Amino acid sequence: MSSAPEIVFAGTDGGALTELAAYEAVGGLTALRRAREMTPAQIVAELEASQLRGRGGAFFPTGRKWSFLPKPEQNPRPHYLVVNADESEPGTFKDREIMLRVPFRFLEGCLVAARAIESTRVFVYIRGEYLREFEVLVSALEQLRARNLLGDVTIVLHRGAGAYICGEETALLESLEGERGQPRTKPPFPAIAGLYASPTAVNNVESITTVTPIIEMGGAEYAKLGVEDSTGTRVFSLSGNVVRPGNYELPHGYPLRDLIYEVGGGIADGRTLKAVIPGGSSTPILTASEAEKVTLDFDSLSQAGTAIGSAAVIVLDDRCCMVQLGVRVSQFYEHESCGKCTPCRVGTRWLTQILKKIEAGHGTHADLDLLLDVGDHVNGTCLCPLGDSDAIAVASYVAKFREEFLQHIEDGGCPFHGTSSLDGIVAPTDVHEAHAGGAEIHRPLEVVG
Ligand SMILES: Cc1cc2nc3c(=O)[nH]c(=O)nc-3n(C[C@H](O)[C@H](O)[C@H](O)COP(=O)(O)O)c2cc1C
Ligand code: SF4
């Protein structure tokens, strides 16, 4: 097991810090006090020194993003901080644990970030299904307000209605404005014209939570953790066929092999490793031998032809049929496509249909060519990366496991003969639908603190 320092989960000792007094007892609110004595430019400089890069998937440098916002004297419109707590990428479940276990570190990060971009309005857009997380945040917000710690900042907790696309930053802004959750064309980027056409920083929950320890320890000190180009720690969501799935905070650069075998206890049920999806369902797959060699950071994973994405590591054992995996992943993107652009709306559906045909044993070699051709016509032709994600993921399964696709075609059916198991790996879309009932609709959609 790793003895890496915990930064995001520091002081929790495996539990949760949901009472303000308990959070203060482990040094909580130090960053807020410090930040209030700093100028906004000094806070941004600390973030730049830390080299923190966004934890939502795109890995964009946080300090640089903030520096793009115009100063209030350049643009007098209100400036907004919007926190992306929509967490819906299959395999990703870290932000929910951050909100549940360190809500004050997260909200403290919101207040520090708001000061950095000279904003007094923060919106936290939280996935609708995250009810417990929402309630923990409501309680934490009330505790901060009771102590007058919010200053002149208003924090609005806004519950989404359960659409993956609303995690895409501009679709999220549309949804927050009460419009249909569909991406906007960029430019302009949110830093220039975001929420209500005003300068807006959109950041992920983990990014914002990490701002707090960066101000506590100093950016340069934080940058000593991890590896070059991927500083600091990361909360990895480990799932699939491992003995101990869960969220693990580890430094960037940690060997993927050690995450699976030491931290995660190895492959469950005495099976063998077949493949790993290293950064959420949208990232290209790695074979077992590739997974043995890589470390969990931007450079190592890029060199291996994949990406760190949302740091959701999905482990697949030898029972996984790659065509079935393709069907599930493609169905997810088809289901979540907002339909705004044709290549994605039509292409994701088409990819699923071809994959289903191959899985059922009715596919031909021409269908396999068509699958890749459709993917090529989706990839790079869409407004946002959702369509690309489907095409890229499916193409990687074919590239790495072509023999298995050919076996389906040549044997006229799945070579696993019903023994393939994808239990706990990318739930089929009907499971999503079953969980999307309106049971919680009587809860407030918004809380203002
Ligand atoms: C289809 C799609 C879904 C996304 N979902 C999320 C999400 O659930 N949470 C998140 O933080 N970022 C998500 N992103 C990335 C956001 O667009 C954005 O890059 C991120 O919130 C920026 O925060 P960061 O710089 O702190 O990472 C998604 C992107 C796409 C294209
Ligand atoms: S790529 Fe898909 S999800 Fe993204 S805007 Fe186009 S149709 Fe919508």
Q: Gist?
A:
The chain is α/β, with parallel strands linked by helices.
Task: Describe this protein's structure.
This protein is of the alpha/beta class and 449 residues long. 44% of the residues lie in helices and 14% in strands. It is built from 20 helices and 14 strands. The chain has a five-stranded mixed beta sheet, sandwiched between helices. It has a five-stranded mixed beta sheet with strand order 8-7-13-10-11. It has a two-stranded antiparallel sheet with strand order 5-6. The model has no long low-confidence stretch (mean pLDDT 95). It binds flavin mononucleotide and iron/sulfur cluster (SF4). Iron/sulfur cluster binds at residues 165, 182-183, 337-341, 344-345, 382-384, 386-387.
- Could you tell me the CATH topology label of the largest domain: Rossmann fold
CATH architectural grouping of the largest domain = 3-Layer(aba) Sandwich
Report the structural category: alpha/beta
Strand order of the largest sheet: 4-1-2-3-14
Query: Rough shape?
Result: globular
Number of helical regions: 20
Tell me the fraction of residues in β-strands, as a range: 5-15%
What is the CATH H-level superfamily of the largest domain? NADH-ubiquinone oxidoreductase 51kDa subunit
